[in-house]
Design goal:
The protein has 316 residues and is α/β, with parallel strands linked by helices. It has eleven helices and twelve strands. Strand 9, helix 9 and strand 10 form a beta-alpha-beta unit.
Length: 316
């Protein structure tokens, strides 16, 4: 049976960012240095394949620090943690390694600087997301107020409209954030913003690459986890930029082939926590069913690398 032709537009950049790459290395190097088990508070990154792979090497994933024994190392996830977490680890004399992405740490430092200058902070983010919890947890309760939408801006109860600053979660939609920032500036003309955009380079680059391929794609698949904020934003960006069918899949087994019947062009990208092996798995699944031509659509080049903490570079 003759296979139908299919052009796949493969977004570049896609998949792992420098912060995710560093976080995974931190867990692997901790296991090499101290042996298994090494405990990890929350998923190190939002990807089941990655988490399962690290679990096989000796990582134990827990929800809270109380779930960890005192005598084994613990690693804090790339999303960041409230200040109370490392403080509790210190009290228990635990060995701990902070795998917070340096770009998230930058937002933490910004928030603290604003607080020291007497400003109350408004955070643009998603309620319940680990990064939002971690950033809000850098300061005393009530000093960071959360807004998720333009509508939230109208009702956020601030202490003094003349003494405000804002920060953002690093994995948001660039377009959504622009609208929320505009609403903040309109309601609070004196609000102080970041010197440089909080949304990380990887989120911005992946969204830009989706904008490039979405208009010419009959369908677009984002390889990523349902609890990955940046992956879900990529689906939204595709839908808003001319692609009628955009879906999030964790693995090739989740592809809805009936929904893709008759397509001639397909966009594929991946969230910042998805390894290349899963992207290749999806492409291979299409090769089994179609006569595939792959076109790489590159909109940016990334060469950023973050160092792992010194404790892991020192001998045991």
């Amino acid at each position: 049976m003759t296979k139908s032709p299919l052009t796949i537009y493969l977004a570049a950049p896609r998949g792992f960012c420098a912060g995710v790459d560093r976080a995974i290395k931190i867990v692997e190097m901790a296991i090499q240095k101290w042996g298994a088990p090494v405990y990890v508070r929350h998923e190190i990154v939002h990807n089941k394949y990655v988490v399962d792979s690290l679990r096989d090497q000796g990582a134990v994933f827990v929800e809270e620090l109380e779930d960890c024994p005192d005598d084994r190392p613990v690693i804090f996830s790339a999303h960041g943690v409230p200040k109370s977490v490392p403080a509790a680890a210190k009290t228990r004399n635990m060995i701990y390694v902070d795998a917070t992405c340096p770009l998230v740490s930058k937002v933490h430092i910004e928030a603290e600087r604003h607080f020291e200058n007497g400003l109350q902070i408004i955070m643009i983010g998603h309620a319940g997301h680990p990064e939002t919890i971690g950033t809000m947890g850098q300061l005393p309760q009530g000093e960071v107020l959360l807004v998720e939408t333009v509508e939230d801006v109208a009702s956020v109860p601030v202490r003094d409209p003349a003494k405000l600053a804002f920060v953002t979660q690093t994995t948001l939609s660039v377009d959504d954030t622009i609208d929320i920032i505009a609403a903040l500036n309109e309601r609070f003309p004196q609000i102080v913003g970041p010197h440089k955009e909080d949304i990380c380079y990887a989120t911005t680059n992946r969204q830009a690459s989706v904008k490039a391929i979405a208009p010419q794609s009959d369908a677009l698949l984002v390889v990523g986890a349902p609890n990955s904020s940046n992956s879900r934003r990529l689906v939204e960006v595709a839908s808003r930029n001319g692609c009628d069918y955009a879906q999030l899949v964790q693995r090739a087994t989740e592809i809805d082939w009936r929904a893709l019947d008759g397509i001639r062009t397909l966009g594929i990208t991946a969230g910042a926590s998805a390894p290349e092996v899963l992207i290749n798995e999806v492409v291979d699944a299409f090769r089994d069913r179609f006569d595939v031509t792959v076109e790489i659509v590159e909109t940016a080049q990334e060469n950023i690398e973050f160092k792992v903490p010194r404790v892991l570079r020192e001998p045991a």
